[in-house]
Amino acid sequence: MRRRGHLGSEADRATFRALHQASLASPALREGLTADSADRAIRHLRTLLGTPALALTGTATTLAWDGTGSHHRAQAGALAAMLVAPAGSDHTRDWTRTVEPAQLPCTTGGCPVRAGVISPLVVDGRVVGTVQAFAPTTTAGLIRATEEVAQWVSGQLELAELDASRNRAIEAEVQALRAQISPHFIYNSLGAIASFVRTDPDRARELLLEFADFTRYSFRRHGEFTTLADELRSIERYLLLEQARFGDRLQVTLNIAPEVLPVVVPFLCIQPLVENAVRHGLESSSTVGHLRIVAHDRGHECVVEVEDNGVGEDPEKVRRALAGDAALDSVGLGNVDSRLRATFGDDYGLVVETAPGAGTKVIVRVPKFAPGVSTTPPRKTTP
Prior knowledge:
- There is one protein chain.
- The protein has 383 residues and is an alpha+beta fold.
- The chain is 45% helix and 20% strand.
- The protein has helices at residues 10-29, 35-49, 73-84, 140-196, 201-218, 228-246, 271-282, 315-322, 333-344; strands at 53-57, 62-67, 97-99, 115-123, 126-135, 225-227, 250-256, 264-266, 289-298, 301-308, 351-354, 360-367.
- The strands form three sheets. A five-stranded antiparallel beta sheet has the order 2-1-5-4-3. A five-stranded mixed beta sheet has the order 7-9-10-12-11, covered by helices on one side. A two-stranded antiparallel sheet has the order 6-8.
- Strand 4 and strand 5 form a beta hairpin.
């Protein structure tokens, strides 16, 4: 038996400890700069710097304090305001400043918070807060270390802003998709329901309930993701309403593998494809329309196919739709394709097989499991 060796030299071990503390602080900072995230990250940041006290601030208020001398907490906000809005030109906003004892009046005997270093947190060219390290005296090493930590924290906050921007973009795409689908579908559905009010009141009532459930799902405001089971349930309601309008002209076949029902997919990623098949593939056809929806289990992936025997489409027009050409009257192809790629990567875009007169098949591939893809938001953990 060989004994496990040490993790290198003392310098190596110090590096590993620093990386470990950074990894512990990172999840909180990736949520943005708030009082809660600052409070969860600050202890690890102070361990990185090894100072008696550390403060994280916004532009004028103290978000979190760790270490001794907490009676100086209110002073940290005032010091931040001095850094963020200095006199002179804007380029001074990137300066790291030292804090002299005169700027930290204190009547507590033996308090180690006598001097400090303030370094800005910069996101997209804007100062959003500061890191403030306090000690009995300032040294060149403390200044450099505080600057490095502030730059690393700024990087994490930049990533948080990118995540937030991505989420806002996805939400905007879903809102656009709702706006594109809703008027057309609502008009046709209410017309179909009205046609049964006198001739078949029971069916009209059932269709109205299905319409209510469908719109409740489509217009929900919570969650970027859903399960394939919920998406297919909404599609079934949609097709019931469309069959009420088309009658025997619309025939539907569903073949769904039970093991893929729990797979998590982007919200409204299959339904627009089904509506596109009905609206563009079958509505213009003079023959009986057949719509086939199949969901396969393919190892680590789920494959969903939406196929119709309708009029088909020009492949060049499909390419333009996938590229997001707003001039085309295509329900959500580009929208769904971009959201799938943003969620799972470019390998998971839509595949469309079509030609004039040959019908259309749209294939969706999604991984069964993907990091960060869940129907429930991640819980915040306390270090």
